[in-house]
Amino acid sequence: MARAWVFGDDVDTDQIIAGRYLVKTDPQELARHVMEAIDPKFASKVSKGDVIIAGRNFGCGSSREHAAIALKAAGISAIVAESFARIFFRNAINQGLPAVVCKGVRGGFKSGDIVEVDLEAGEVRNLSTGKTFKFQPMPEFIMRILRAGGMIPYLKQTSGKPGAFK
Fold first, then answer.
1. CB neighbours of 65 closer than 8 A, spacing ≥ 6?
2. Which of 25, 67, 91, 145 is the most exposed place for a label (fewest CB within 10 A)?
């Protein structure tokens, strides 16, 4: 079962992974420092499959892909937010990390709630309270990238195949 980790509005990429770690290339090393500007113990508390629930403009700031890499390597299985900074959204998808826009979601969770995200059905469920939030399911081409584990694995799987980008 996945736990929810709730964050507010305008969580920027420096808060997700500080600039001093941008010289690191090992995803696991980045994961050890993820979200430490907001919660210094986050990396030691998060478990594989957990979900971030956030307010507006998640991932604002610089366009570093390290933020999405660090979250995924830490075990985060999805981020559900009121809105995303556009570049972060695409970086997350390219890394195989679902980034779901869902209006009103932040107010329906507290950290520690049990959460379930169904990308195909377009639902995020708070199993602790019984509340369900609907979102627009992602387009099929994005789902193919996510299923492959990110853009690079997707390109490796589809290289030279007709119609791969439809």
1. 91, 94, 95
2. 25
